[in-house]
């Protein structure tokens, strides 16, 4: 069992930290809203802190799950002075590869490890302890952190050096954007053709068209329900990272760029917090 600090207790971080406590790790938590950390500690028999450095001091592994580059930098800088030699800082946020490389270098200079380790699987995966973690960083740091990460992950893959985890997450988001748009168009077409959508899904969902999105989102998309899941605002943040990186490395991602603009339309419709499957809403509005 390890001493683990977890920084950020949102819809992903809260359940992830909960699995650490259930697995028997000495779990200390910090959240910007102190009341949330106190509630988590009471529910999970953990320890809540109002100061990041106090939460981190003595921890073998420090995990962070926050929103964007500025937030990652802030919690890292607050934790850095208290990080022990040989400890590992694991960033589960979705942020830029450039920042990951910068923080990995800063951590190495200070004598501890840094892993960029974004996750896939959404809130449901976090609650079930079945997340996919894609990691960039040194192999020794991955080995040291992996027993902790397995408390909430079904799949932990080391994909390369610092920054590679964030780049892999960008690949994940590119693929999701295209799949969700394709599913939205398919369902919209089925509705316009007066087909029995449930029968169509039964016919195609076990063949080449099958996807996680189809299995888990077709029904709510058909019903026009989007008040759950991964928010459009967050997806646009992620696609912004993709487009920035593509401009830098020369990759051509026209579908991702187009879907990003479709999500901008969803935001304008008032769907900033809707699930990413809400792409069908703009098609039905235009029908």
Detailed description of the structure:
This protein has 13 helices and nine strands. With 287 residues, the chain is of the alpha/beta class. The chain folds into two domains: 3-160, Rossmann fold (3-Layer(aba) Sandwich); 167-286, N-(1-d-carboxylethyl)-l-norvaline Dehydrogenase, domain 2. The protein has a six-stranded parallel beta sheet, sandwiched between helices. A three-stranded mixed beta sheet has the order 7-8-9. Helix 1 runs parallel beside helix 6 (122-128). The longest helix has 29 residues, at 164-192. It is globular.
**What general form does the structure show?**
globular
- Helix proportion range: 55-70%
How many domain units?
Answer: 2
User: What's the CATH class of the largest domain, please?
Assistant: Alpha Beta
Q: CATH-wise, what's the superfamily of the largest domain? A: NAD(P)-binding Rossmann-like Domain
Read across the widest sheet, the strand sequence of neighbours is 3-2-1-4-5-6
**Tally of individual helices:** 13
Mean of pLDDT: 97
Using only C-alpha atoms, the radius of gyration works out to 20 Å
Largest sheet: 6 strands, parallel
Reconstruct the topology from this structure.
Elements lengths: L2 E5 L5 H10 L3 E5 L3 H11 L2 E3 L2 H5 L4 E4 L4 H11 L8 E4 L5 H14 L2 E4 L2 E2 L1 H7 L2 E6 L2 H11 L3 E8 L3 H29 L4 H8 L7 H12 L8 H18 L4 H15 L10 H8 L1
Parallel strand pairs: 1-2, 1-4, 2-3, 4-5, 5-6, 8-9
Antiparallel strand pairs: 7-8
């Amino acid at each position: 069992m390890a001493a683990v600090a977890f920084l950020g207790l949102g819809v992903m971080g809260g359940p992830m930290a909960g699995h650490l406590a259930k697995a028997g790790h000495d779990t200390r938590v910090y959240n910007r809203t102190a009341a949330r950390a106190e509630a988590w500690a009471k529910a999970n028999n953990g320890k809540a802190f109002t100061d990041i450095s106090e939460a981190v001091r003595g921890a073998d592994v420090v995990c962070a799950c926050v929103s964007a580059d500025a937030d990652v930098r802030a919690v890292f800088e607050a934790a850095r002075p208290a990080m022990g030699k040989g400890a590992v800082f694991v960033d589960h946020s979705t942020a830029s590869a450039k920042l990951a490389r910068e923080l990995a270098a800063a951590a190495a200079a200070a004598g501890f490890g840094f892993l960029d380790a974004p996750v896939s699987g959404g809130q449901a995966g976090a609650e079930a302890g079945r997340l996919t973690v894609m990691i960039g960083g040194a192999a020794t740091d991955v080995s040291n952190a992996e027993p902790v990460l397995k408390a909430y992950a079904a799949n932990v893959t080391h994909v390369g050096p610092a920054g590679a985890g964030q780049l892999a997450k960008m690949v994940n988001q590119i693929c999701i954007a295209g799949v969700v748009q394709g599913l939205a168009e398919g369902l919209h077409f089925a509705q316009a053709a007066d087909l029995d959508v449930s029968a169509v899904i039964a016919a195609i969902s076990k063949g080449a068209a099958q996807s996680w999105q189809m299995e888990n989102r077709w029904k709510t998309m058909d019903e026009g329900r989007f008040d759950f899941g991964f928010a459009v605002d967050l997806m646009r943040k992620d696609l912004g990272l993709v487009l920035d990186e593509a401009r830098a490395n020369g990759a051509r991602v026209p579908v991702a760029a187009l879907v990003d603009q479709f999500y901008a339309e969803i935001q304008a419709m008032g769907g900033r917090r809707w699930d990413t499957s809400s792409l069908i809403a703009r098609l039905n509005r235009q029908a």
